[in-house]
Amino acid sequence: MPETREPxxxxxxxxxxxxxxxxxxxxxxxxxxxxxTSEGVFLTQGYVYDSAEQCEARFxxxxxxxxxxxxxxxxxxxxxxxxxxxxxxxxxxSTATGMAAVTTAMLAPLKAGDHVxxxxxxxxxxxxxxxxxLPRYGIESTLVDGLDLxxxxxxxxxxxxxxxxxxxxxxxxxVLDIGAIAEITHQAGARLIVDNVFATPIWQSPLxxxxxxxxxxxxxxxxxxxRCLGGMILGSEAFITEHLHTFLRQTGPSLSPFNAWVLLxxxxxxxxxxxxxxxxxxxxxxVLARHPKISRLIYPGRADHPQAATVKKQMRAGSTLIGFExxxxxAAAFRVLNALKIARISNNLGDAKSIVTHPATTxxxxxTPQARAELGIxxxxxxxxxxxxxxxxxxxxxxxxxxxx
Length: 405
Known about the structure:
The chain is of the alpha/beta class and 405 residues long.
């Protein structure tokens, strides 16, 4: 079985030259002496050595091979390599969850006295890391309106080391200008970290736009079938080696080998699923935009999206997510959610099953009403993650439910 001491950086792969759909099926595959078609699942904690001398050499880094699955594992290495080639990154490391990826990418390179700038429109747990966790370690932060480039510019300080944003944002689907923000970030001598979950690697490539680091919750579209948790951090070899390598080895937010195998299976169909979900979402968004009980609809694929020009510049297509405000506030929104028969209430997204979320009472409930209002998260606001059901069935389900509003 071919081995690599550090799966974060592997030799140039013959599959790297192929188009994304081919890389999603073949990149990173290692085969044992049994010649299996599907990737092997290596459910092992540790590894044995031929001799004490080999063990010593391996720990010194002189012998290429695995030491402990908290550090690296053949199945995890295959998942990491496939994600590296898909994203076009130099290196990458997986984590147990998407939030472990965000927290590690933020915390690992920072120290007391550093400063972070972040767009205030973000997932509630990400905002907790920025606002509550980092200050405990002497790391200051400034939240800005991510759409206002002047605010980014003014927020930069001599000790600013990292900037963070989501685009499209959760849940209001604002699309931030990654290239322009990257330029401001680099002028300040900082790095830009982009959460690319909503766009997926199929529709947006932040590294090509100027970002330094990309993070994913692999729990979402990459798995895409509600089965397991996982995360991924991608960037330069220098970032992974200098900042993440030791941090991950010593703190241990490790991805399970079984979950890595499930995520490999998810990657094989990622492009097919995301394309089908995006096509359906575009049709459903057009239908909902005309509904009399919806006061506001946001979808990155529509010409009336507030940042339509930015969408066209940096995304290859819209999203699988739709945001809309139901007239009548929370009570009306709850009646609609409770009346749905196909789309189900959950706080996940990117699944093969359509999912509806009421952000004000779930993902963003810890924010004050004023903070939610500032972000455009009204009491009647609903986030819809479009699945793989027939679009006409989803439209009929939504129409019937909206009658209850």
